[in-house]
From TrEMBL:
<feature type="domain" description="EAL">
    <location>
        <begin position="23"/>
        <end position="281"/>
    </location>
</feature>
<protein>
    <submittedName>
        <fullName>Diguanylate cyclase (GGDEF)-like protein</fullName>
    </submittedName>
</protein>
């Protein structure tokens, strides 16, 4: 037993070492990601559940490494946050997304909102609002066509700084959405007190709607409660991670305004997204 235990520990150490090594390797490699053109954006449509219109498009960053291939943002965004590179990456993402949205208006007649994920690390910079303003000016995108997605954690962690930034963005006319709603802290006061226009119900709630193992009635009750809060506070509601027709019908029936997910479209590169805008069908 003793021997097996030691082996167990050794295996655990080895696994930990391998993971640490990989993180160090990726951290080093990510330094060059921007300058070597390894980053790109993909775009996922968000549909109005009443009209069927593509009201918004979320920009999502991708890292393609020449050796390691595609690395998930779930892996490299935390690395970029720790190394500080998130500032440059975030600026690049915002700029690309704004230029793209302006282009889609002029060349494909799409006048919806582009939504961009913002890391709490970016948001905590006193210069953030100015950067957004400069990017809007540079790209010629009207402020009302930009929505920034923040997680609850980001909003609650440094309240005064965040409040100042949110009010600055509100003055510019930029919209704010709360991402992964329902998974963070359970303070609701911030929804009332801060200039937030939209909440995105986390995918896990939508997933439970269809799961035979988890009781779907809880998901129904929770989504109903979230929509109720949103109605009271005059917020829009997006259902994330919608994968089936049943989920579409359910979230529409429960009063969600918008839906996003593989059922409608996966995140697409710009060319495929443009094909979708032109023909209603992806390439
Ligand atoms: P998120 O903002 O919650 O983005 C939604 C994620 O769910 C995306 O994963 C998307 O591809 C995936 N997804 C969309 N529809 C479905 C569906 O129907 N089923 C399932 N199973 N998944 C779906 P992705 O692109 O890997 O992004 C992961 C996370 O990385 C994002 O979560 C976001 O937190 C972060 N991220 C992505 N791009 C950026 C960025 O430019 N800046 C920052 N700061 N974070 C980013
Ligand atoms: Ca998001
Ligand atoms: Ca989300
Ligand atoms: Ca997320």
């Amino acid at each position: 037993i003793k021997k097996a235990g030691r082996n167990g520990i050794r295996r655990f150490d080895a696994a930990l070492d391998a993971e640490l090594e990989r993180t160090i390797l990726l951290t080093r490699e990510f330094q060059f990601a921007l300058s070597r053109d390894q980053l790109s954006l993909v775009y996922q449509p968000i549909y109005d559940l009443k009209t069927g219109e593509m009201s918004k498009i979320e920009a999502l960053v991708r890292w393609s490494h020449p050796e390691f291939g595609a690395i998930s943002p779930g892996v490299f965004i935390p690395i970029a946050e720790t190394s500080g590179q998130i500032m440059a990456v975030g600026r690049w993402v915002l700029e690309q997304a704004c230029f793209q949205a302006r282009h889609w208006r002029e060349n494909h007649g799409w006048a919806g909102k582009i939504t961009v994920n913002v890391s709490p690390v970016q948001f905590a910079q006193p210069t953030f609002v100015d950067e957004v303003k400069q990017t809007l000016l540079l790209s010629g995108l009207p402020a009302h066509r930009l929505e920034l997605e923040l997680t609850e954690g980001a909003v609650i962690h440094s309240p005064t700084l965040v409040q100042t930034a949110l009010r600055g963005l509100q003055r510019l006319g930029v919209e704010i959405a709360i991402d992964d709603f329902g998974t963070g802290y359970s303070s609701l006061a911030y929804l009332r007190d801060l200039p937030i226009g939209c909440i995105k119900i986390d995918r896990s709630f939508i997933e439970d709607l269809a799961s035979p193992r988890r009781a779907p009635q809880y998901a129904v009750a929770l989504i109903t409660a979230i929509v109720g809060i949103a109605r009271t506070l005059d917020l829009q509601v997006v259902a994330e991670g919608v994968e089936t027709q049943e989920q579409v019908d359910a979230v529409r029936g429960l009063g969600c305004d918008f839906a996003q997910g593989y059922f409608f479209a996966r995140p697409l590169d710009a060319a495929r997204l443009e094909a979708l805008l032109d023909s209603g069908q992806p390439d």
